[in-house]
Amino acid sequence: MAAVTNFTYSASPFLVRCCSMKENHHEQLNGNSSIRMNGSFRSPIKVESLSQTAEAAPTTLVENGQRQNIPTKKQLVDSHRQGLIVGVGYRQTVVIRSYEVGPDKTATLESILNLLQETALNHVWMSGLLSDGFGATHGMMKNDLIWVVSRMQVLIDYYPIWGEVLEIDTWVGASGKNGMRRDWLIRSQATGQIFARATSTWVMMNRKTRRLSKMPEEVREELAPWFISNQAIKEDAPEKIVKLNKEAKYTNSNLKPKRSDLDMNQHVNNVKYLRWMLETIPDQILESHQLSGIILEYRKECGSSDIVESLCEPEEDEIVVNGIIEPDYCTNLINGLSLASSDIINGGGVLSYLEHRPMKYTHLLQAKGEKQNEEIVRGKTTWKRKFTTCPFST
What we know:
It is an enzyme of class 3 (hydrolase). InterPro entries: Acyl-ACP_TE_C (IPR049427), Acyl-ACP_thioesterase_NHD (IPR002864), FATA/B (IPR045023), HotDog_dom_sf (IPR029069). This is Acyl-[acyl-carrier-protein] hydrolase. Keywords: Chloroplast, Fatty acid biosynthesis, Fatty acid metabolism, Hydrolase, Lipid biosynthesis, Lipid metabolism, Plastid, Transit peptide. Pfam families: Acyl-ACP_TE, Acyl-ACP_TE_C. The protein is of the alpha+beta class. Strands 5, 6, 7, 8, 9, 10, 11, 12, 13, 14, 15, 18 and 19 form a 13-stranded antiparallel sheet that branches. The chain has a two-stranded antiparallel ribbon with strand order 1-2. Strand 5 and strand 6 form a beta hairpin. The radius of gyration is 28 Å and the shape is globular.
């Protein structure tokens, strides 16, 4: 029968089981005898040393009241995150992991959005402005304020592949009187090839009332030294997204957030919104096309008790060609809307033009209500044909 010995490790006990085959078991452990392991002889571990090690261990994981050890001053280099401050911007080196890619071994859009969020938070971390909130500064925490994104746009030329090393640059700038703009640039570390660009607009919300708030002067003073005017995506006027109605072509109803979908601010993470939107895209499109652009306009936060409906409408009528959904370009050609395209004039021909013309969808996520539904996010996605070969050497 196995003898059971209890050792106490700080506040929590753990169990060590020792099989006693002979009466002189402890004498053998304390002696100079050796144990054969994988063909070689090694000295046995003494039970006393385990007890001594356990007693010497710290009593808590928190040191000086702060596990995270958030910097209180600007840090130029962070070796753990492979990041550094460049001017007032931030650059981080990342490797695409196996769990960040899809069946085609390229990074998913969800993974890219997660990387954008992570580098943004690390930028605030290294600036010395981060308090204990989700990207909130010290001044924001004093005023019970949190960041919420109001608009985001991502343009993707090429998707990174599994194992590829990327450099992600991010920086911030002013957006009106009370908002902040954050931009990103994703490139290949090996070639410098730009993979994706992104821009976003952020506003402040009171953590208790859940109402939007003006930017306090002390917060403005914290952020202003980090503002620059560069833009990853230049827009003369933001593209407006129309509101869909219940007659949308594709719908997915009764979507319920899970606990794992909530972020540190206790509302559904924006990456989850994207997943709900993409689930309404026809399978044929997902197999033959890849998303090249997305615009998201956030209207209302989504909580754990909300029941969500996802609506999707193609911008053009669709037809089926060889089992694949395609936009009804013929109607547009007949109406003279596309005959002036440079792809046709320059000799690419109508078939080449139809092959490479992107497809666009309008999206809406809304929370179901007893009297009326409430908008959560409006979106627009652009899709282009997948590359059969890598467009450039890596």
